[in-house]
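Here is one such tokenized protein:
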Amino acid sequence: MSEVKPGSSKEWALIESLLNKSVAEQRKSRRWGIFFKLLTFAYIFFALWMFSPSNWLPDKKTDFHTAVIDVDGMIAASQEASADAIVSGLRDAFESKEAKGVILRINSPGGSPVQSGFVFNEILRLKEKYPDKKVYAAITDMGASGAYYIAAAADEIYADPASIVGSIGVISSGFGFSDVMGKVGIDRRIMASGDNKAMLDPFSPVNPEEVEKFQVLLGVVHQQFIDSVRRGRGERLKENKETFSGMFWTGRQALEIGLVDALGSPGYIAREVIGYEEIVDYTVRPNPFDAFAEKLGVSLGKGFAIALGVTPFSLR
């Protein structure tokens, strides 16, 4: 291989080639930089458009229609099916002059008795304030426990023949770790002011007196549930020994014992019962930014507590 002498034409050609390659790389880098900047701006623009309020608020139309509010998933203050969200949708629907009837489209296993009670009472209030507008509960896959608590306030309840309906009861679940702690040599140390402050501590042995006290509390909540169902269903309810036992039935079976009034879908109710086939969704949806943060794991600690059963009680 021949040696490149300083100042030779070959040296200058090599330098020129290196410079050209450097300029080409810089140009390529700038082009990619511009591309990624444009892509970022496009993404931000799309995200702002998708998350703008007009894209998640209910589409209120001026024509006469049937209003629908979803009760979907677990009923709890921190969930999409919270009392605040359901009640807000109900108020909008009842206040709308264009909405000729209201459907609660239910697919829920239940949840908080407090949240369910809030919605039940608000439905009764709205029915009294707007006597000419009826509200119908349409149970799809499931309308159990706290979800049925809400449905009981409706003027009529509809279900599919295969829907799961009922489960009128109260449950409190958790875990006990006292035996495990003894086996691994962990000593539980708990300090509390008040005889019942540490009641049902999962790391302590079961205390029969504490269980009895808590069972009384569950009984009070259960009776509240029973009274509400009786108030909402009235003489249509055909009570038997299993009605308030926590048992659940199919939609067809529920029809036979008066838990539902008829079989039918939300579309059937809108078309054949209310008489306005067009359905407008009045469900209050969560802010997309909050939903995104939730998915990133903001509620991991809360979910872990629920998984461990560190919750009061629920209708499910």
User: Anything to note?
Assistant: Strands lie at 65-72, 99-108, 135-144, 156-159, 164-166, 248-250, 262-263, 279-281. Confidence is low (pLDDT under 50) at residues 52-58, 291-300, 304-310.
